[in-house]
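check this:
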Amino acid sequence: MFDQFDTSEIRTKETTIFMRKSGNGPPLLLLHGFPQTHLMWRDVAPLLAADFTVICADLPGYGQSGCPASDPEHMPYSKRAMARELVGVMEQLGFERFAVAGHDRGARVAYRMALDHPRHVTRLAVLDVVPTGVAWKRADADFALGFWPWSLLAQPEPLPERILAVAADAIIDSAFDEWGSAPPIFPPEIRESYVEPLRDPRHAHAICEEYRAAAEIDRERDEADQAAGRRIACPLLVLWSGNGPLQSWYETEGGPLGLWQEWADKVSGEAVAAGHFFPEELPQETANALGSFFL
C-alpha cells in the first residue's frame, strides 16, 4: 500500500497538509471524501503513477492533515479556502498547472478549485457528486435520510462533534454498509485508519465545520456563481455510482451529466457499476476511466 510513494507534510498559510507522491509524468492531484482519508486511493494511485506524478492529499481537517482554527462563518473550511490551500501545496511541489480528481467531499473542493483557479487546473474529474448548491436546492426526504451527514454534521456544535467522536465506529460502519456495494473490501486496518481521526475532537470539529460551510457559504457561492454565469473552463469528467441514488434521483434533469452540463461546456462521463465507494470497490476500472481522461 503506497510502497513506492514518498510521504511528506507541507506547511501552508493556514495549516499542514499530509500527502503522498509518486510517479512520473503530468501532475495529478487526488482528493478523498467523507469518512475517508487519502488511503481511499491506495489501489488506484499506484496504477495511475505509471503515467502521472500522483499526489494523494488529506483534506484540511481530515486524516493526518492539520485542523485550521475556524470562525463563526466556517470560512477556513469553505471549499474556496480548502481549494486555495491545495493549490498552494501543488505550487510548492513545483506544479503550476495540474489535473485534479475528487471523490465525495474532495470533489467539492476540486470543482471549486477549477472555478476559482482556472489557470492552474487543466482537467477535472468529480466522482459521485452533484454541485453543492444543486444538492441542497433539490433536497427532499430521500436526500435527508440517505445522505444524513449533510444535515446531521451541519448542526451547531457540540452535538455532531460529540456524535462523531463517541460513535466513530458506528459512523464508519453505517457509511460503508449503506453506501457501498461490497463492505468486505475494507480490511480492518483500513477501517481503523478511517475511524481514528473521527475519535480526535479536533478532527471531529473540523469535519463538522466543513459540513457547516457546505450548508452555508459554499451553497451561497454556488448560487452566486450560477447567477453570474460562471462556468468550469476545463474538460470535466463525471463518474457516479450506478448502484447509488445519483443514478435515479435526478432523472428529470438528465442525471448527473445533465446537472454538470449546467456548470461546464466540455462534460463527459458515465455510471460505474458499484456503490458510492467505487474507487475502492473497482480500483482498476476507476484507474482506467481516470487515466484515459487525463492522458
